[in-house]
Amino acid sequence: MTPRNPSDQPTLEDLIRLKRAERPPADFWKRFEEELRAKQLAAIVEPRPWWQSLTVLLSGRRAMIAGFGAAAAVAAVGYLRLPSNQALVFAQAVVREVSASAQGVASTPSTVTEKPAAQPVAVVGAVAAPAATPSSQVAATDHSARSEDLPRAAAVASSVVSPVLVTFSEIQVPPPRSALATTVPATTRSFASSLRTELGSSEPLASISAPQEQRGARFAIFAEVAMLPASAISSSARSQLTPRDSDLRDRDIGRLSAKANALRLDF
Amino acid sequence: MTPTKALEKPLVTSPDRAQEADADSVIVRRVQGGDVAAFDVLILKYRQRLYSVIYNLTSNREDASDLVQDSFIKAFQSINRFGGQSSFFTWLYRIAINSALSHLRKNRLRTFFSLEQIDENDRPSAEVIAALTDDSNGAERGTMVRELQEKLNEAMLKLSISHRTVVTLFEIDGLSHQEIAEVMSCSVGTVRSRLHYAKQQLQSELQPYLRR
Q1: Which distant-in-sequence residues (6+ apart) come within 8 Å of B99 by Cβ?
Q2: Does B96 share its domain with B41?
Q3: Chain B residues close to A1, C-beta within 8 Å
Q4: Which member of A103, B42, B54, B150 lies 3.0 to 4.6 Å from B64 by CB, making a disulfide possible if both were Cys?
Q5: pLDDT tens-digit profile of A7-21?
Q6: A117-131 burial, b if ≥16 CB within 10 A, otherwise e?
Q7: In DSSP terms, which residues pair with A22 in a beta bridge?
Q8: Structurally, how many domains does chain B consist of?
């Protein structure tokens, strides 16, 4: 159908004006709103891909913080290779050994009290600050200043220390002299496997002959000592905790390794 | 009544646009701060305008509805990345136009279109209808207007996507050449050229229905 006479015919502008006046019916907007609400809810609930979250997380200042954090974590992991559960056992053993020795040699300072292993103070401290063990090692094994250092060692072990600070403090610490303290980091890797094997047998100490296995057995005793009150530790177990010359030699050899043209010494 | 020849474009003047942008940025900040409900204000404010543009690009009500909804969802999801370099509407508009263009490219061969009713309260269009259908009764008038709408939609769909977009943005939404150039990432000269060519094409397509 077309207009009856030419003067009634529209121009292009008229048609465009008609088009501009086109509107959807009222119920259209009701449906539009419902659909949009459903889509909006789905968009909120639907999990985003991980890379989108990453871009949001790592935007602006957060990127810098994350970078520093990652660098600090890498540095800390590079220097601290002592697993936390073994650090716990070690820290407990050191505290016990030192406090037991202090009781035998001189009067114990009033700030340090003998606590059963089940009490959480030393345990929590060791878990929270596994990196504090090198400082406590030095303090605990320096026999000349044992009574003075004992409270400090206990305090360090029970405090939370930043991994970054620990990394630097560990670098500055002089090489430990006590075999009791130094054999621990050197043998942590073989400890887990040997301990697992030893715990599986009925008489672990009877079948041990190699130096490495002997060390493993002593670590098993460390674990046992750590879990028991000082009064319950047998004298044979106590004698097993003393260092041996063969162990020191073996440890030093194990720390030295050569790769390509480089000579490496592990601390 | 003789229809006026000059088109009354719904152009928004600069001060108004700046004021509108300021009001929007306040709402956007609220949404960015966690007030999700504040986004509804923006939806209510711009849904008609966005729908109008996208409907005229697609000539299909359902497609236009989906595209406008998706545009709002995209804007809602990315609102934290909106830094305020442009006005919120320009940003939203770009999202919608890009979604529509992408949809049109994907469905190049689809020619199904739907018609909306003409708003009788719109004075200029009422004048046009009255001039076209002086003596005809209501039913006849409706049929004639509908036929004209169909012919225009058909002619629009025969235009290329870029030409259709320019005509829609300029004639329907009232954007300036400069604004269209920004939205379409081309020069102002290209916009003018496309607009001229598109109008010629529409004239020739609608020849039997138009006054010379």
Answers
A1: B67, B70, B71, B74
A2: yes
A3: 140, 143-144, 147
A4: B54
A5: 667 788 888 888 888
A6: beeeebbebbeebbb
A7: B118
A8: 2
Banded pLDDT at A165 (limits 50, 70, 90) = very low
Residue B8 maps to a domain: no
CATH of the domain at B53: 1.10.1740.10
Q: What is the ipTM of this complex?
A: 0.76
Q: Measure CB to CB from residue B118 to each of A2, A18, A44 and give the nearest one.
A: A18
Tell me whether residue B7 is in a domain.
Answer: no
Distance from CA of B36 to the nearest CA of A (A): 10
Q: What is the pLDDT of residue B145?
A: 76
pLDDT in tens, B61-113: 889 999 999 999 999 999 998 888 888 988 898 899 999 999 988 876 666 66
Q: Which DSSP helix (H) or strand (E) runs through B197?
A: helix B188-205
Asked whether the beta carbons of B114 and B61 are under 8 A apart, the reply is yes
Q: Which domain holds residue B123?
A: 112-212
Query: How far is the C-alpha of B54 from the C-alpha of B64, rounded, in Å?
Result: 5
Which chain A residues have a beta carbon less than 8 Å from that of B37? Answer: none
Residue B185 lies in a domain: yes
**The two structure tokens encoding residue B31:** 């949404």
What mean pLDDT is predicted for residues B120-129?
64
Cβ atoms A139, A97 nearer than 8 A: no
Q: Which residues contact A72 (CB under 8 A, 6 or more apart)?
A: A163, A164
Q: Is the pLDDT of residue A245 over 70?
A: no
Asked which of B76, B111, B146 is the last residue of a domain, the reply is: B111
CA angle A19, A23, A25 (to 5 degrees): 145
CATH value at residue B151: 1.10.10.10
Q: Are A140 and A157 in contact (CB under 8 A)?
A: no
Q: Residue A39: closest CA among chain B residues belongs to which residue?
A: B73
pTM recorded for the entire structure: 0.49
Domain C-terminal end among B88, B111, B134: B111
Looking at the structure, do residues B79 and B135 belong to the same domain, yes or no? Answer: no
Residues of A at the B interface, defined by Cβ within 8 angstroms: 1-3, 6-25, 28-29, 32, 35-36, 39-40, 43-44, 56
Amino acid at A127: V
Specify whether B85 is located in the same domain as B120: no
| Residue at B64 is within a domain | yes
Partner-chain contact B148 A12, CB within 8 Å: no
User: Pick from A23, A25, A12: which is nearest to B170 by CA?
Assistant: A12
- The whole-angstrom separation of Cα A108 and Cα A129 is 25
Measured between CA atoms, the residue of chain B closest to residue A26 is B117
Q: By the 8 A CB rule, do A80 and A170 touch?
A: yes
